[in-house]
Amino acid sequence: EVHVVESGGGSVQAGGSLRLSCAASGFTFDDYAIGWFRQAPGKEREGVACIRSTDDNTYYVDSVKGRFTISSDNAKNTVYLQMNSLKPEDTGVYYCAVSEGGPYATCTSSGPLEDDYDDWGQGTQVTVSS
């Protein structure tokens, strides 16, 4: 059973930075993608960034390009989301998820899509004040 745990959320002022961590364990497959999603109050959950296990390629939605960086530390089975130049509109609950399907299909230039991801963490709150 895949187990996913996020950490690192908090409250910052606009322009500040946070680094989220996603610890994933219990893998029985080699090829996967890990995605970060977020859900703002009153809005649907949206994909933010993803990374493939096969080639470490990364993809971002337009609203975070140039500000967020996703990376992985395979030795620690951990994926990070470095968030810089945070804006109030980045506020929300951030979720990490694992796609057990083919990563070339689930982590593309369009970013991660919720329906393609199978194993989810409980989420971590990020609040950015103006």
Cα-atom radius of gyration: 14 Å
* 3D shape: globular
State the major sheet: 7 strands, mixed
- Secondary structure: number of strands: 11
Distance between the termini: 40 Å
Structural summary, described in words:
The chain has one helix at residues 103-106; strands at 3-7, 10-13, 18-25, 33-39, 46-52, 58-60, 68-73, 78-83, 92-99, 119-120, 124-129. It has 130 residues and is mainly beta. Strands 2, 4, 5, 6, 9, 10 and 11 form a 7-stranded mixed beta sheet that branches. Strand 7 (68-73) and strand 8 form a beta hairpin. It is globular. The chain starts with a strand and ends with a strand. The mean pLDDT is 94.
Please sum up the structure shown.
The chain has 130 residues and is mainly beta.
List keywords for this structure.
48% strand; 3% helix; globular; 7-stranded mixed β-sheet; 130 residues
Topology:
Layout: E1 3-7, E2 10-13, E3 18-25, E4 33-39, E5 46-52, E6 58-60, E7 68-73, E8 78-83, E9 92-99, H1 103-106, E10 119-120, E11 124-129
Parallel strand pairs: 2-11
Antiparallel strand pairs: 1-3, 3-8, 4-5, 4-9, 5-6, 7-8, 9-10, 9-11
